[in-house]
Amino acid sequence: MLKMLKYLTKKDWMLVLLSFVFVIGQVYLDLKLPDYMSEITRLVQTPDSQMRDILSAGGNMLLCALGSLSLAFIVGYFAARIASNLSWKLRSSVYDKIESFSLAEINKFSTASLITRSTNDITQVQNIVAMGLQLMIKAPITAVWAISKILGKGIEWTVATGGAIVGLLILISIVMIFAMPRFKKIQKLTDRVNLVTRENLTGIRVVRAYNAEKYQSNKFEEVNNELTKNNLVINRVMGIMQPGMMFIMSGLTLAIYWIGAVLINNADMMDKMDLFSNMIVFSSYAMQVIMSFVMLTMIFIMLPRASVSAKRILEVLETKESIVDGKGNIKETSQTGEIEFRNVSFKYPDSEDSEYILQDISFTAKKGETVAIIGSTGSGKTSLINLIPRFYDVTEGEVLVNGVNVKEYKQKELNNILGYVQQKAALFTGNILSNVAFGDNGKGNYSEEDVISAVEIAQGSEFVEKMPDTYKSAISQGGKNVSGGQKQRLSIARAICRKPQIYIFDDSFSALDYKTDRKLRSVLKKETTDATNLIVAQRIGTIIDADKIIVLEEGQIVGMGTHKELLENCKVYQEIALSQLSKEELASA
């Protein structure tokens, strides 16, 4: 938890120092009240006392109370400001860190857990800082100062106060034993609730299509019940704690007055007034001591959960990225637009030595060429494509872009060279303009004309111009208000709009009908003559005109050449081709 403090700024530390000063002032005023109360008690019982003296002492009490209230407001404001600034800094740092993660780190934590850490966990830390700055500073100062005030005012009362503190510590120990282990489980259970909820909402169409509402409801109920049980245990323990504390405080007050009554009854007439005054003062100071322990108890109860949250946040912030930037500043070479794989082998992080997804892959895609990759499901096509933009790094060998190892690029520089269209089209909340003119390729913002041209090339003009606001028509979260084919075309338009040196299409034409697919590829070929096209596809028709086709089988290249060459000498390609087209169709093609 202390590691969180390094994220406080100099301004925050100044506010902490000011809070410390104001808390001391607040404690001084709070502890001055019993002195004036004692003076009023003495004046009331002293013959010939002047009313103005009593009113003066009462006025001083009122000023102390108002002063303490004002300082409490100021300290509360400072604490809230510091806690809010810290949570803002942590949230920004966690978001930036997650943005820098490769797919390996994302998969390690899971999306649901990262969301919880970015929201709920940071809120827990914010709460403990807001309360801690007020209570953790005030409670010890109040306790020490109040104890120093009551020392020597009566051994009997001191023993009674000590007994109350022991009782309070026993109560706190019971809470720690039963509640603390539950606090540590809650954050992980919150992760699981978020995971199940996210899965259900993401796959709601599948859930309904298979009448699986009851099944999903049971899954949610299971994790929700477990979270509820843990919260109930904690709340029951806390429910016992509050009346227990009130019982101890009321019992201490009763003990002080009972002891005081006995002492006053047995004292001489001259000592009765002093004893009575001391009893009033001692009672007030003893309550301050007990309240200090109560405040510390509240912090100790919140601290374990906040500590777990802090560890989870730090786990994200202190994770070392597996993909790091190279030196960058790569100059253009004669190999501009070229991609080369040199003896590349790849396995996913933390997998066994034998589990290679790709083995000894070598090929070159030169500027202006269209290179297609085909193979059965699970042959490693997408894994191969993911190595170019460095979603993962190669295990062995090299991937070169423009004749330079991708590891030598800064990731931003590398991304500016590529136009990437993933297998599952991803759209963002906004409109068509904001989705097509998405991001930056170092050339500044895109004009509306650039967007219109890109959408036209991607064969999307027809449906976009029929929408109510055409290019300013709203796109809902995930593009739920457009069809799969429309989403795919907008994703392709996004890549075209940035005019990259290299296009990467990861099975990006699968959602298109044959007519649109053929027309799009025909227009795209004319518009991207100076760019390299790398296409992953399942359909023979999509790649039949490619300059080079690479056939993958179980992570290895089993064939490479043109469509005609592969039909003659690659058995795997022949099987794929014949499963989709007849011999007559292949012959005519």
Automatic annotation (TrEMBL):
Domain ABC transporter: 339-579
Molecular function via GO: ABC-type oligopeptide transporter activity; ATP binding; ATP hydrolysis activity
Main location: membrane
InterPro entries per record: AAA+_ATPase, ABC1_TM_dom, ABC1_TM_sf, ABC_transporter-like_ATP-bd, ABC_transporter-like_CS, P-loop_NTPase, Type_1_exporter
Source organism superkingdom: Bacteria
Stretches that traverse the bilayer: 12-29, 57-80, 127-147, 159-179, 245-265, 285-303
Lipid bilayer topology: Multi-pass membrane protein
Keywords annotated in UniProt: ATP-binding, Cell membrane, Membrane, Nucleotide-binding, Transmembrane, Transmembrane helix, Transport
Stretches assigned to the ABC transmembrane type-1 domain: 17-305
Stated name of the protein: Lipid A export ATP-binding/permease protein MsbA
Organism, as annotated: Romboutsia ilealis
